[in-house]
């Protein structure tokens, strides 16, 4: 399923005329070749599943990005404690009086039992937090993967050996356990345990911890790709004309690792979203009152919410399922578009 | 035959053709280490890909290098273009030793030695347009041709017989022969003095081979570029090269001008090689019968080459002397100047049919015995 090492780029070759001698006819139309990237885009556009899932993914990113605007139009924010503001909506235990967690024309997704936050804006901002963290992790992972993977593959020898052993070592870590154990440690690097932890420190710690154990698979794939590319004759051609290693990596190798890079990145991002949600669910990620996708699950599983407001679980649950499924389908489509030979 | 007068190898005398040497290679050696052992990996041997070869290419000359697969031809080409570091020996270009030069020291010479590669599908970057591929070397060497690089790219495309309007296309939009032309255009972009062509046509089909070889010949004549033409196809080398060297297992065993090698070969291996070329004769037309030699077995492993003469394990004339003494590459009596052979017991300088064919391959011999009985 994941062998996207396609350095050729395009499978469908557009065959031009057999002998293209210098024709005397003045061609007014500029002949423009179709790049492997454009061929990929054309193939992707034909894939209906891919286009639909891309739309879904873009929709999620859009509502994440536009969350403050939407909440302004909607007239509520996720930090208002409606249990204090509108006590008439809650009973003595803090559970919304109306059925299904108080879903009404005013509160579209209902109210959260306990503090009485607005679920709709909380979900929007939760998606925003989760996606921003995951995107940051993906970007750092991709950069590290390129740097170490391409360096290991192209330079080879001792560099390759050293990076390879570091990767082996880090892969031996049990990731989830390491995240849970190291989150408080990383947080305490920034603030003393007695002070209150600012949210940005938690976000930073989440990014660092996930990045630390996230880059290895990508680096390995890029190492393999650049190792194969290094033996190709066009690299030798560049060396014969005197190109430096830096130029060869930049101009000859990097454009050719874009394919596995894009495919892997689209697989990595949803896995980071779920990992981040998992950490917040377990209470080591983002904590109240900052809204977060995963932390909404942990809220939904508390006794108070569980017993009184089962609908609460559906909003983060269904939205996350749709997002992850769409993103994974998108990853498959991207791979198929880049490498039509592996398509079903 | 053994009483042949052996003359020492004349160096740079080149009585047959004028011209100063452009590239001189002496004692060039490349050994690839073989690692093994447990738990500590160490070098336990070496693949002696190229083992002390001498050759010189003159200005504007086409020099052919032929031999079986795995004899070290391509390694020699890569050593000369400095894609690999030689283990020993010197490569001098216009009298300047470049065998250990760093990338910076090489910079002025880089533009003068270029290479054409074997596989046109792997030698062009699939992510770059033809224009970028051809102008890349100019960009690296900071060459600003008059009228701009794009104009020069169009000129080069026209020289190699491609539509100059195609400079915006990508390699996957071209056929193998067209791709190889792009490779030639890239090599010409720096106006080199020497092109190392590493089996430039062996990946192409025969009709395209002729086109590309003729293109290379045109380029060589019109632009006065010297070629080191590496190939295993003897007919193409004969068509293209003025001088030819025959390699076997990392060594040059015979070198000389084209006519000497093709019509008056002395080394048994050259005889065998020439005899292995398939013959095409038109019905009714009787070509003069050629000798017939069929070798048996494979080329020995270059990790552990035979002692003395490397060809002795497959040679029908081998004697004890061949195992103990390595034959020097010398001019044998009766040979033209510049025709050097490394053999203790050379053959007659002819390729005509002998009284009895030499069939060393037991399977083939048995087969022929069967058919002659019928």
Automatic annotation (TrEMBL), chain A:
Protein name: ABC transporter permease
Main subcellular location of this protein, as a coarse class: membrane
Domain ABC transmembrane type-1: 127-331
PANTHER family in UniProt: D,D-DIPEPTIDE TRANSPORT SYSTEM PERMEASE PROTEIN DDPC-RELATED (PTHR43386:SF1), OLIGOPEPTIDE TRANSPORT SYSTEM PERMEASE PROTEIN APPC (PTHR43386)
Topological type in the membrane: Multi-pass membrane protein
Gene3D superfamilies associated with the record: MetI-like
Locations listed in the record: Cell membrane
Any one Gene Ontology BP term: transmembrane transport
Keyword Transport set for record: yes
Classification of source organism: Bacteria, Bacillati, Actinomycetota, Actinomycetes, Kitasatosporales
PROSITE patterns: ABC_TM1 (PS50928)
Automatic annotation (TrEMBL), chain B:
GO MF term (any one): ATP hydrolysis activity
Residue ranges annotated for the ABC transporter domain, each copy included: 23-274
Top-level division of the source organism's lineage: Bacteria
CDD domains to which the protein is assigned, alphabetical: ABC_NikE_OppD_transporters
InterPro entries: AAA+_ATPase (IPR003593), ABC_transp_ATP-bind (IPR050319), ABC_transporter-like_ATP-bd (IPR003439), ABC_transporter-like_CS (IPR017871), Oligopep_ABC_C (IPR013563), P-loop_NTPase (IPR027417)
UniProt keyword list: ATP-binding, Nucleotide-binding, Transport
TM annotation in the entry: none
GO biological process, one term: peptide transport
Entry-linked PROSITE patterns: ABC_TRANSPORTER_1, ABC_TRANSPORTER_2
Family: Belongs to the ABC transporter superfamily.
Name the UniProt record assigns to this protein: ATP-binding cassette domain-containing protein
Species of the source: Streptomyces griseoluteus
């Amino acid at each position: 399923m994941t062998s996207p090492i396609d350095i050729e780029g395009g499978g469908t070759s557009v065959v031009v005329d057999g002998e293209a001698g210098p024709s005397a006819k003045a061609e007014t139309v500029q002949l423009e070749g179709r790049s492997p990237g454009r061929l990929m885009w054309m193939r992707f556009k034909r894939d209906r599943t891919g286009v639909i899932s891309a739309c879904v993914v873009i929709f999620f990113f859009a509502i994440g990005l536009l969350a403050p605007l939407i909440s302004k139009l909607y007239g509520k924010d996720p930090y208002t404690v409606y249990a204090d503001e509108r006590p008439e909506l809650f009973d003595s235990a803090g559970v919304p009086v109306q059925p299904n967690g108080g879903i009404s024309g005013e509160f579209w997704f209902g109210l959260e039992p306990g503090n009485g936050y607005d679920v709709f804006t909380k979900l929007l901002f939760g998606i925003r937090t989760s996606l921003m963290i995951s995107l940051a992790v993906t970007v750092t992972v991709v950069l590290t993967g390129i740097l170490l993977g391409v360096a290991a593959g192209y330079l080879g020898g001792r560099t390759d050996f050293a990076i390879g052993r570091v990767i082996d070592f880090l892969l031996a870590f049990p990731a989830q356990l390491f995240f849970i154990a190291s989150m408080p440690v990383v947080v305490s690097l920034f603030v003393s345990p007695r002070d209150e932890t600012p949210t940005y420190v938690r976000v930073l710690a989440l990014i660092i911890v996930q990045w630390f154990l996230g880059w290895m698979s990508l680096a390995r794939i890029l190492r393999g790709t650049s190792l194969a590319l290094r033996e190709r004759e066009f690299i030798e051609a560049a060396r014969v004309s005197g190109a430096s290693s830096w130029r060869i990596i930049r101009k000859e190798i990097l454009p050719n690792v874009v394919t596995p890079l894009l495919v892997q990145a689209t697989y990595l991002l949803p896995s980071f979203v779920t990992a981040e949600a998992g950490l917040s669910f377990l209470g080591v990620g983002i904590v109240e009152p900052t809204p977060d996708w995963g932390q909404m699950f942990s809220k939904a599983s508390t006794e108070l919410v569980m017993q009184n407001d089962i609908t609460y679980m559906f909003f983060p649950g269904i939205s996350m399922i749709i997002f992850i499924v769409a993103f994974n389908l998108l990853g498959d489509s991207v791979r198929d578009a880049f490498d039509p030979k592996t398509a079903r | 035959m053994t009483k042949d007068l052996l003359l020492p190898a004349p160096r740079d005398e080149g009585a047959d053709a004028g011209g100063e040497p452009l590239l001189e290679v002496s004692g060039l050696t490349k050994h690839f280490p073989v690692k093994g052992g447990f738990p500590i990996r160490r070098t336990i041997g070496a693949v002696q890909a190229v083992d002390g070869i001498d050759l010189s290419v003159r200005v504007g000359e086409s020099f052919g290098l032929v031999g079986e697969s795995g004899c070290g031809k391509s390694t020699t080409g890569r050593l000369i273009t400095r894609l690999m570091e030689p283990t020993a020996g010197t490569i001098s270009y216009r009298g300047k030793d470049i065998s250990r030069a760093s990338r910076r020291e090489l910079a002025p010479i880089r533009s003068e030695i270029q290479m054409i590669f074997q596989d046109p599908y792997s030698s062009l970057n699939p992510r770059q347009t033809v224009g970028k591929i051809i102008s890349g070397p100019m960009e690296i060497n900071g060459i600003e041709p008059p009228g701009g690089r794009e104009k020069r790219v169009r000129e080069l495309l026209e020289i190699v017989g491609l539509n100059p309007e195609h400079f915006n296309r990508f390699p996957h939009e071209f056929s193998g022969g067209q791709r190889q032309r792009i490779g030639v255009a890239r090599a010409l972009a720096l106006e080199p003095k020497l092109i190392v062509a590493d089996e430039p046509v062996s990946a192409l089909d025969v009709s395209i081979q002729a086109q590309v070889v003729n293109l290379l010949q045109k380029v060589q004549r019109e632009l006065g570029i010297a070629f080191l033409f590496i190939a295993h196809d003897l007919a193409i080398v004969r068509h293209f090269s003025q001088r030819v060297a025959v390699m076997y297992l990392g060594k040059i065993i015979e070198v000389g001008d084209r006519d000497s090698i093709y019509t008056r070969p002395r080394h048994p291996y050259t005889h065998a090689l020439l005899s292995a070329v398939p013959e095409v004769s038109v019905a009714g037309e009787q070509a003069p019968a050629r000798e017939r030699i069929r070798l048996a077995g494979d080329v020995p492993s270059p990790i552990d080459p035979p002692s003395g003469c490397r060809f002795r394990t497959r040679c029908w004339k081998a004697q004890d002397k061949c195992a103990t003494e390595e034959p020097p590459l010398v001019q044998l009596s009766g040979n033209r100047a510049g025709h050097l052979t490394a053999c203790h017991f050379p053959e007659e300088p002819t390729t005509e049919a002998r009284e009895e064919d030499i069939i060393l391959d037991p399977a083939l011999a048995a087969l022929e015995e069967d058919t002659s009985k019928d």
